[in-house]
Amino acid sequence: MLQLAPAALFDHYLGISRLLAGQLDFRSAIRSVAAEVAHIIPHDHLDVCVLLEGGNYHTAYETGIETAWGEIAGAPVVNSPIRSLLRGEVDFLLSDDAMTDQRFHFEGAFKRPIVEQSLRSRLHVPMKVQGTIIAALSCSSHKAGVYTMEDIERARIIADLLTPYFFALQTAEQAQRSAIVEAEARAREEGLRQGALKLTEALEQERQRIGMDLHDQTLADLTRLARRIDRLSRNGEATAEALEPVSRSLQHCMQDLRQIIEQAKPSVLQLFGLAQAIEHHLDRSTFQIVRAASMPFLLAICRSMTICADLWSRASFSPAVPFSASITISHSGRAALTASCR
User: pTM of the prediction?
Assistant: First the structure.
């Protein structure tokens, strides 16, 4: 223990408060005050052990000696050599030789730095906010029997000076993490909203296009054919020669209608792929006959067709194959499924 006049101690305490100002993270904060703390409590190793996730984990910010304690971002408190202090079971820990003190050497204790760095004399005091422990201040020395109860009292004053600043840093860090999570959630929500909006617009445009094509082509052709057939029936001229142009016109009309249908993009196909589109149509087609006696045979067919659809899907959505080919495959599969179910 250093023998210092009260005025000198007070100056060092004020120096700690001045040095903390402007520090923006835990590590820089503890390193900025290490020299002033050394004037009050001599040490070879100084660290602040901050509790995380409701006190179940902790991480150490250290200065003087770099140890394995500072390399782990979230070590379990249950394995900490000072777990009794972090849990509030004791008010302080003071040891003349931590290398032989059994309080630091229980089963599962993360004690390796004590042995590797020969940290003999050790003292630990809690850092509390409104009675709740948020961290612990620790000082260690290579020499044995260095610290006394007077050093514990000094360490408590230092802890009281550090605690508000470390609590503010911890709160700011938590607020930053929460803001990041909230921003990511908003971004995902906005992405889904934009995707749904674009899909709705695309579906509406497709609906309008199909409506115009049906009105301008198919409906006009059917109206013209209906008038011709009506005129032929009134005049009694419904002979094979007279109906042949009508048949050709109907064939053209059917071809136009088929082209309109082919150009319509199946939504399930567009959104989820060929395998899912065929499987969706299979579910719809076989909904009423699933309970039939030939169910095992039907399920075998379903599995085979799903496997085939999956293989087709890998090929049809590759960059080398145009989307129109996938549409054709989808329509062919739907037609085959419909015929099979009938």
Answer: 0.55
